[in-house]
Amino acid sequence: MHSAQELVSQIEALTSLPDVYMRVREQLESPAGSVVTVARLVSADPALSARLLHLVNSPLFGQRGRVEDIVRAVALLGLQQVHDLVLAMSLQGIFAGVRPARLDMRRFWRNSLLTGLAARAAGIAAGLTAGERLFLIGVLADTGHLVMYQTVPELAAAARLAAQAGDEALDAAERRLVGCDFAELGAALLDRWQLPDRFGTAVGAQMLPRLGGAYAAEAATINLARRIAEADELDLPSSAAAARVAPETWGLLGLEAERLAGLREGAEIDFAAYLSLFFPRR
């Protein structure tokens, strides 16, 4: 049996984050953090700066007037949002060296992006702040499966088969066969990256949101978003997806099951635009 920390430590490719992101994070965490310094860091990476300008000028952010200067873009977005967006736009590069033989990466990224968009929509509907942060947390919610399929692929595949047979939930099958589940693995990875507490806590509690403590609502958005992404993958009607959501999740978000169809529609409408921005070659 394996622990989450043990499996995460086995993947050297995932133990460090891009230098530009780390330096942006230093600015965010510093009392002397500067918009001008962050803009300079982003500008040093032409591809990143071009994508950030593309993003801030897209209908997704609704800016009036074209923004052509990185300093202005960073000032408009704010340091925290730039931090989150730089990390989101770096994900493709971070995971470039991870190619699990038994995991369809195209489907993985599609589901992760939809989960992020649905978590963002659910958070906004529930009155939570920092919608783009919820988007990023949602995108990162299934990273534990990347670790699992890279380190113990046979056990991961066996757990998925057991869940598909209807014998038990996927996370339960993983704990039985692997020793930990994908949510624990994801939390361990995000903690290793030293991301803010809400990231690892929400991802780790996504299957039982009430265990998320101060971040239970964030965990609930992921729980709901996973059902929406699952419905998209399996081509299920929204009513069936809503029936699979635990009452606890609806209660933590203060939403009714009837809201799921609208949240799903919004996530699916935004999918193509976000795919081109965050995963341009997928």
Automatic annotation (TrEMBL):
This protein's species is Thauera aminoaromatica
Domain of life the protein comes from: Bacteria
Q: Which residues form the HDOD domain?
A: 14-209
Q: Which Gene3D superfamilies match?
A: Hypothetical protein af1432
The protein's name is: Putative signal transduction protein
Q: Name one Pfam family in it.
A: HDOD
Entries under InterPro entries matching the protein: HDOD, RNase_Y/CdgJ
